[in-house]
Automatic annotation (TrEMBL):
Reactions mediated catalytically: ATP + H2O = AMP + diphosphate + H(+)
Organism: Gemmobacter megaterium
Protein family according to the UniProt entry: Belongs to the nucleoside triphosphate pyrophosphohydrolase family.
EC id: 3.6.1.8
Protein name: Nucleoside triphosphate pyrophosphohydrolase
NCBIfam families per record: mazG (TIGR00444), PRK09562.1 (NF007113)
Record-annotated NTP pyrophosphohydrolase MazG-like domain positions: 40-113, 177-235
SUPFAM superfamilies: all-alpha NTP pyrophosphatases
Domain of life the protein comes from: Bacteria
Length: 273
């Protein structure tokens, strides 16, 4: 189809969100749209939504400010995509999405948009936010509403935080550490007698308590693990580079040699710190 047959707003760089909505409508047009886009469903698009959110977080972690507008645009496209599909199904539309978040922000910020005083700390505002969310949940269970699609460690922390707000929590970090030691010991002692399913359950228990320790220490476990993985990747690349200087690859080496190179880059990291 020639460009002139499309809504002119699609080619108007100054049209803002209306331009994106028009583009999505054109892509999803059952007659003239893109075959791939037409075939998509909520379920097929959801993984892309999660992936784009991670790419936003990655750009921020790398201080890649030049990339961030594009990554945020990719994430915004996901919201528009879901809203368009919902509109086609007669469920809701873009305006409903915008209205829902606007109403929520106003309702949850009475110290900004209402008569409530702004004279309180960020911590108190967080408590008020959670209290408002609990009120909105009404009679639902304490742990209801924690999204199943969250990364496992993040969901574990959120579930634990909900339970802690009603008093179900270890009061001391030392108790969490003791539980980690207990779970690790049970896992090792039983590894030769448990079924694979039981081993997985025991390992899950250990990870769950590790997430609890992160919460007690005010650490984001997802961020901590990403950083540890990035550090491992960088240090292993050093091993590969050093071996490549000799015309060799890791598979041509052995653990003792690679471990020595690992200690070399680790010492250099510590010297820089």
């Amino acid at each position: 189809m020639p460009p002139s047959d499309h809504d002119p707003i699609i080619f108007d760089a100054s049209a803002g969100i209306d331009r994106l909505l028009a583009i999505m409508a054109a892509l999803r047009d059952p007659v003239t749209g893109c075959p791939w886009d037409i075939e998509q469903t909520f379920a097929s698009i959801a993984p892309y939504t999660i992936e784009e959110a991670y790419e936003v977080a990655d750009a921020i972690a790398r201080d890649a400010w030049g990339e961030l507008p594009g990554e945020l645009g990719d994430l915004l496209l996901q919201v528009v995509y879901h809203a368009r599909m919902a509109q086609e199904d007669g469920r809701f539309g873009w305006d409903d999405v915008v209205r829902a978040i606007c109403d929520k922000m106003v309702a949850r910020h009475p110290h900004v948009f209402g008569a409530q005083s702004r004279d309180k700390s960020a911590a108190q505002q967080t408590q008020d936010w959670e209290a408002q969310k609990a009120q909105e949940r009404g009679a639902a269970g304490v742990l209801d509403g924690v999204a199943l699609g969250l990364p496992a460690l993040t969901r574990a922390v959120k579930v634990q935080a909900r339970a802690a707000r009603v008093g179900f929590d270890w009061p001391e970090v030392a108790q969490v550490v003791d539980k980690i030691a207990e779970e690790a010991r049970e896992l090792i002692e039983a590894r030769d007698t448990l079924t694979p399913e039981a081993m997985t359950e025991e390992y899950g228990d250990l990870l769950f308590v590790m997430a609890n320790l992160a919460r007690h220490l005010d650490i984001d476990p997802e961020a901590a693990l990403r950083a540890a993985t990035a550090k491992f990747t960088r240090r292993f690349a050093y091993i590969e580079a050093r071996l490549a200087e000799q015309g060799r690859r890791p598979q041509d080496s052995d653990l003792a040699e690679m471990d020595a190179l690992w200690n070399e880059i680790r010492a250099a990291d510590r010297a820089r710190d």
